[in-house]
Design a protein that fits this description.
Layout (H helix, E strand, L loop, with lengths): L1 E8 L2 H11 L6 E8 L2 E7 L5 E7 L15 E5 L3 H13 L4 E7 L8 E6 L5 E6 L9
Parallel strand pairs: 1-4, 5-8
Antiparallel strand pairs: 1-5, 2-3, 3-4, 6-7, 7-8
């Protein structure tokens, strides 16, 4: 059920280098990197090629709002776009803050459809599906 998770780091590049070196025997490698004003956001993958471990800049400079000035991120895998939409509805009904409404995120990869919500501890929780094509307009 866990799709991927994000870990705040004081030095994301050093954290990524550690994991890609120490866990290289497991196929761990850098799969994606996004530059941000606070520092790089780096996605690591195993032999599958799918990034699942992300390091991002920790602290106020990253805009994080979680405990201690940092924000954890967890993404749970949904089977369909309808499930992602249902998570958004459940979050609304529970009074949760919707960080990003359900939508396609082509900057990650085609077919990436997700909603991002704030959990009660201030962390970023996501429901995501990866491969279902968008509906064809009527």
């Amino acid at each position: 059920m866990i799709d991927h998770f994000g870990v705040p780091a004081t030095d994301p590049a050093a954290a990524a280098a550690f994991y890609t070196t120490v866990f290289a025997p497991l196929g761990m490698h850098e799969a994606m990197r996004f530059d941000t004003p606070g520092g790089p956001v780096i996605g690591l993958a195993d032999a599958s090629g799918q990034p699942f471990l992300w390091f991002s800049p920790a602290g106020a400079a990253s805009g994080s709002t979680g405990p201690g000035g940092w924000e954890a991120h967890i993404a749970l895998q949904a089977a369909s776009r309808a499930e992602v939409d249902a998570v958004a509805e459940a979050a609304r009904a529970a009074g949760a803050e919707i960080l990003h409404q359900p939508r396609d995120w082509p900057e990650y990869h085609p077919g990436y459809y997700a909603v991002f919500v704030r959990d009660p501890e201030g962390h970023n929780a996501e429901a995501v599906t990866h491969g279902e094509a968008p509906p064809i307009p009527a």
